[in-house]
TrEMBL record:
Signal peptide: none annotated. It comes from the Bacteria. The chain crosses the membrane at residues 20-42, 87-115, 148-168, 180-201, 213-234, 305-326, 346-367, 388-410, 416-439. It is found in: Cell inner membrane; Cell membrane. Keywords: Cell inner membrane, Cell membrane, Membrane, Symport, Transmembrane, Transmembrane helix, Transport. This is Alanine:cation symporter family protein. Pfam families: Na_Ala_symp. The keyword Ribosomal protein does not apply. It is a multi-pass membrane protein. The keyword Lipid biosynthesis does not apply. Its main location: membrane.
Amino acid sequence: MFESLVSTIELVINKLNGLLWGSVLMYVLVAAGVFFTLRLAFIQFRLFGHGAKLVIQGREKVDGISSFQVFCTSMAARVGTGNMAGVAVAITVGGAGAIFWMWLIAILGMATAFVESTLAQVYKVKDSEGQFRGGPAYYMEQGLGKRWMGIIFSILLIIAFGFAFNAAQANTITDALNNAFGFDKTIVGIVVMLASAYIICGGLKKVARASELIVPVMAVAYLAIALVVLVINIDQVPAALSLIVKSALGWEEAAGGAMGAMMAGIARGLFSNEAGMGSAANIAASATPNPNHPASQGFVQMIGVFVDTLVICSASAAIILLSGVLDNPGDQAGIGLLQLALTNELGGWSAYFIAFAILLFCFSSIIANYSYAESNIMFLTKSKKVLYIFRGLVLAMVMAGSVASLQLVWNFADVSMGLMALVNIAAITMLSKVAFAVIKDYEKQMKQGLTPTFDPKQFPEIEGIEQGEWSTAKMAEKA
């Protein structure tokens, strides 16, 4: 009876996943990316350099969480096994052309990420401890006056990022260390749980500080390995680029044909960079922006999408395509294909490096995912007791995920995240006029040679923020 019920639930979840990620969500997010790109006059190209400059300037010390710390935290959540295993799966299913479509969806997604993160800053609030919080749930309540919509979004995000994804990330860590070193999964799970507890119980500031330390190390180390493979095979780079383009456009036979390449690339790209999901907007709201304008955090998150997909995912693609492993992959797919590629190029020690990379990628994702969920818990209730209970449940899921098989949980999380994205896209589309006005104001001040600053008095159409301290009063009264 129980097995039959589980099978039925799994069937329904898989059907929903196929519908969301195979068609509906893909078209909605692509359409949103095109719309925001055109309305912002290709801002991801025009002001890319300015965005990169703001990321670097964000390292300056501030009274709160810096823009750079927020950038690292959002990257910690974005960059995970999807940047390695996900790229390998996309190439296996759709051929080399999948990478072309992954790049394209990231370029469009940069504009979407810009809009949602700008709105998160506009409608951010201060809690009773003076910490900024915000994200889709908050701009749904304050900007649209639809708290019910924010509640739905919060519940979906907490399910996906607070519980399911953290269990799955812990499972990946224990699998990797068990396979590489033979470590006992239970012991590894306990260590991961305790390390997670140390950081997440310190709140958002400790999560941000940990991300600031971990993310640059993991990104530089992984890119360095990819660069070595690139240099070793430098003569094959033109042919690899040609294969990517030809396969994407159907000019060369690929694993899944041109349509298969498009579907695989777009799906994996969206899953990796999260543009439009509304997830990164939760931590974007926590930043003390530099300069003091909501659009500055839009620029920072725009660069985050670029680094995630066009840099780190491209590094994984380079390792696989240049190694020649696709000529004889055997039964390898996903992370196994990437490990085989690195082993062929650099020797057996690289398997240990992948285990180390997965450890950093997944652990940083656990603490960043928690930070997203915490902001949504605080949206639902201001009770500290509930927050402490939630932290305990997250740690329990980390431990359970370390030793259990979680395919059903992972699939359920995919459904939650897909529905979450649909709710968020609807909200940012309805609030797009506000975002465009705020971004236009930023650019206007830039052209005048000024350091952009945000004055709510210039935006009487923005509801939910008072004519005083920027966007903090409303929720502080409730805290």
